[in-house]
């Protein structure tokens, strides 16, 4: 909790509440510097990889390492725990293992992934996607933030070479097992600590509606081609389509130019859709797309739909879950989650597991996100015991 308190003033968002910390922005860079200093202070060897992620090694870097970590960025107006809890707990777990006199037989590393939330450049898990080749380097580097700065430019300013980015087989080969600790993001966990069993299939789509910009007072309603109307219809269609456990969310609507007395010339509607599997998710998005196209036609507008990112259902490694249970107890609960994580991206490349710390309110991606200090402490103990079991 003292470590989290250390970070409490970094990236506070006074307008939205909570925190806004995004890949390579000032707040995230300050948190990364904090992490590097903390890791070096523990005698860990801090090495950035080619893709903007930070690694801190206990022992000689090499294949078969036991790796833990998470991210330091947030959603816009996010909570204090989503991301930083996993990083801080990893450092505390190292301290606890040392206090126990543990000497790892395998290399152990703590990793911080860049732009996990996609809050700045639009694609979530950008650092782990780059490392695994799930996104091509040129596509990642061309992504822009709200000010038109590209990811490549931001990475370059932070000391990374965009030309060297891309799938990193050496980093992937170094991961013998990956365990990410994270605050649980729903109300599904009744014990202080549990395991993740699976992640819903999910993706992001951008609907760009184009109409005719004009004057709010001088343009008769019957003369308008207002892209905000099909945008609104799309929001409603998303709610209608998300049945049977599927989720569809429009959390971001960007009108251009965005003036109160201006009929927008275009509107970007960002859709986040998730469901048990790929076919069901695609079905939900197809229904929303059909509604968006119909509403655009009715208003004399155009619509272009782009898939911005995608990830299929993740089932975490049964063997590694059994190892974690061997360390923590056979009765350690496991639960599915609707939230995406770097662990979900890595799961296609290495045995991967997640430890969840109970969320008493079920609030996440919002300033009210919370975890009790005792549960966080239980998370550190569970992570330390897991790492000890895996690295012995
Ligand atoms: C990231 O936290 C996500 O699930 O969108
Ligand atoms: Mn998140
Ligand atoms: Mn997270
Ligand atoms: Mn996430």
UniProtKB/TrEMBL annotation:
Keyword tRNA processing annotated: no
Swiss-Prot/TrEMBL keywords: Hydrolase
Gene3D superfamilies referenced in this protein's UniProt entry, alphabetically: 3.30.70.360, Zn peptidases
Family: Belongs to the peptidase M20 family.
Name assigned to this protein: Allantoate amidohydrolase
A Pfam family reported for this protein in Swiss-Prot or TrEMBL: Peptidase_M20
Xref: PANTHER family: ALLANTOATE AMIDOHYDROLASE, ALLANTOATE DEIMINASE-RELATED
Highest taxon above the source species: Bacteria
Lineage: Bacteria, Bacillati, Actinomycetota, Actinomycetes, Pseudonocardiales
